[in-house]
């Protein structure tokens, strides 16, 4: 694919003409008058149209973004659920069992401390409540941030996960000016109002 471009600075060293032609396939920049190849190493700055995930329709250049709503912030490695190799062929029975074992150990290794398990459970509770009481992603993200800060300051110990999740959601709703009462949140998570306020 050839593309005519009028370069502002560089001229052809041979004839002095400023009109250059770019060949996108070979990465060459040529003079349109005399045909001299000025440079053969033009970097392609366009999007990379290949996907390493199982989703064929995904033409994104990068993976999923990071988010506070995931216990590992979306930075972990995940062994996919597809039982196919890199070429798309189905795995053999022995290889399937090996991959299944690897998936099991991968999921176990992601939450090895009690704090990680606590955070994972709290974030799951918040995700359930998101749909139950119609909260936005911004409210949940803020509640996750508040919960993480509470964990850093060691305020989680001795309190129920549901009570602290409800308190973080209420604080997040107040912070983002989302109209939810303490009773709405307590009813959504199925605990008493007193357990949220303690």
What are the main properties of this structure?
41% helix; 9% strand; Cyclin A, domain 1; 4-stranded antiparallel β-sheet
Topology, pairings included?
Blueprint: E1 2-6, E2 19-23, E3 28-31, E4 37-39, H1 93-110, H2 114-132, H3 137-152, H4 161-175, H5 182-189, H6 193-197
Antiparallel strand pairs: 1-2, 2-3, 3-4
Explain what the structure shows:
The protein has 198 residues and is α+β, with helices and mostly antiparallel strands. Among the domains are: 2-39, no CATH class; 114-197, Cyclin-like (Cyclin A, domain 1, Orthogonal Bundle). The chain contains six helices and four strands. Strands 1-2-3-4 form a four-stranded antiparallel beta sheet, with no helix packed on it. Helix 2 packs across helix 4 (161-175). The longest helix has 19 residues, at 114-132. It is elongated, with a radius of gyration of 28 Å.
Percent strand: 5-15%
Question: How many strands, which pairing sense, and closed or not: the largest β-sheet?
Answer: 4 strands, antiparallel
From the N-terminal CA to the C-terminal CA, the straight-line distance is 68 Å
Query: What number is the mean pLDDT?
Result: 79
Uncertain parts: none
The fold-level CATH name of the domain at 114-197 is Cyclin A, domain 1
CATH architectural group of the domain at 114-197: Orthogonal Bundle
Oligomeric assembly = single chain
Radius of gyration: 28 Å
The H/E string reads EEEEHHHHHH
**What helical percentage do the residues reach?**
40-55%
Overall geometry comes to elongated
Strand order of the largest sheet: 1-2-3-4
